[in-house]
Amino acid sequence: MSGAGNREAVFPTRQSLxxxxxxxxxxxxxHSLLKRKSEALTKRFREITRxxxxxxxxxxxxxxxxxxxxxEVTYATGGQIGYQVQESVKAARFRIRSKQENVSGVQxxxxxxxxxxxxxDFGLTGLxxxxxxxxxxxxxxxKAVETLVELASLQTAFVILDDVxxxxxxxxxxxxxxxxxxxxxxxxxxxxxxxxxxxxxxYRLKKVKNNKKKALDEADAERAKLKEQEGxxxxxxxxxxxxxxxxxxxxxxxxxxxx
Amino acid sequence: xxxxxxxxxxxxxxxxxxGYRNSLLTSSNYSNLTQCETLEDxxxxxxPSYGEQLANVASPFPTSTIAAKATEKLVQDFRYLRAQATGxxxxxxxxxxxxxxxxxxxxxITGTLHERDTKDLLERCHPLGFFEGLPALCVASNxxxxxxxxxxxxxxxxxxxxxxxxxxxxxxxxxxxxxxLYKSYLEAFHEFCTTDPELSGTASAELMSxxxxxxxxxxxxxxxxxxxxxxLSKSDRKKLYPEMGKLHPxxxxxxxxxxxxxxxxxxxxxxxxxxxxFDQGGIGQGGGGIGGxxxxxxxxxxxxxxxxxxxxxxTHHFTFAVVYAWLKLQEQEIRNITWIAECIAQNQKDRIGNxxxxx
Lengths: 259, 359
Description:
The complex is a heterodimer. Chain A is mainly alpha-helical. Chain A has 3 helices and 2 strands; from the N terminus they run H-H-E-E-H. By secondary structure, chain B is mainly α. Chain B is 69% helix and 1% strand. Chain B has 18 helices and 2 strands. Among the domains of chain B are: 12-84 and 323-359, Topoisomerase I, Chain A, domain 4, CATH 1.10.132; 86-178. Classes of the chains: A mainly alpha, B mainly alpha. The A-B interface holds A 64-65, 67-69, 71-72, 74-76, 78-80, 83-84, 87-88, 120, 123-133, 135-136, 140 and B 63, 67, 103, 106-107, 110-111, 113-114, 116, 121, 124, 126, 173-176, 178-179, 182, 218-219, 222-223, 225-227, 229-232, 240, 284-287, 290-291, 297-299, 302, 331, 335, 338-339, 342-343, 346, 348, 351.
């Protein structure tokens, strides 16, 4: 990542450091959760893919059998019964219930088919001949539709899961590669700023201390000088009063002796 | 004696029918058909019989086209025969078309009941059952009107008059209406064959009596078997059995009381010919199950029997029954061809041998 540039616009304060740390923690928790969700969904997704494959193969077989049983009906009844069947149907015999299935927080619609046995609207079709074939054909097509329903619910789940998995993966990637580095960068930035402030403060304090010390020293020196001066005078007095021979070379400016 | 004057009126028609019979597909033709890999090959194999009709069919065609074209040929031949027929034979052939008319009228009744545009239905009607008054039925907007038009315009009036009221058309299931009509038709046809002055006592009467009796028995058995598990009550069921055939009256009485296939078996065992049918055909599992291989359904056994009867008819001379037999044979041929075409189109070669060939 592009280092210092990629960070959030915050003031480097202790408070925002706290906020950022909380955010980083949140992001990490979120990341691991989403990752797990994505894994669960992918697992499910693979399973569904496998079942779709199976269902499609099954559908191929069943539809073939169904089409053939229709040929049998045509052979047995010796005519077209399509119109008659269409017209005599009043209510659906094959029905579908839709329910929701929850996979890691994703609502997948699942279709469940059931047959209402009492609905037999064209039970008398082909009464004179071919009735058994008609009923058999109906059952076979019922099975074919069942397979189609199964396939439809799998396909819907497939599409929805595909979308969700993409979104989740995008989120995982976003958290992993954008949010976390940025928060980390921000924290680093705040830390470095705070450190610098610390150092500045320290230096300033040192400087102040130095200055103070210097001032103190100067004051001391002044005082000492003053004291010295005072002392010298006194000494002079003392010297004057003492027996010791004075260095005559040492002090040029000795006071003129006034006689 | 009856042979003496037969040829004056009907000799030509009989000759033509025998000619048609010779052009029916034989076993070797069928075995050639079953060898076909594509519908294109099939079309080529059918050229000798149906070349004229199939010639202009564009290459990718559905199996229904073959059936439609073959039916076209059948209708064409039948119309030619009908045009040649006179006297009792003409009436006989009219009777043949009545069964198709029943189907057509039933179709139109269904359409009227559900308030569909019945004009579209005319195309779906079987051409053999097409008569002048048929388009008039489309005019009817309600059931009473339709009922009166049927009585006035159609040759089916006698079948309607005695058995159905206009309210029945509305209340009863159309299948029951159809079967009631068919029962009445069979009885009328049978009566015509046995009592018409030109026909009674001839080979025609004898043969048709056998064939129609078998048809009646077949319907009775089928109705019984197919009505298990439906709302059709036993007394209503009894009304649908034609009052003729070998099963009538004891057999049909037993059939009317039957509750399961086993009872049906008991009922038909009183007729020696039918006893073996149940052993040959798996009952209740029509079609022998999916991929069930060679097992025949009862339906198949009936068709087989029908074809044998039809074939036997051709051993007789001077009879109208050959026309009936030819019609049935030709129909079976169309079914066979459609079946083979379906098997080829759907790549179900293991069941392709399920057709019925008699020659």
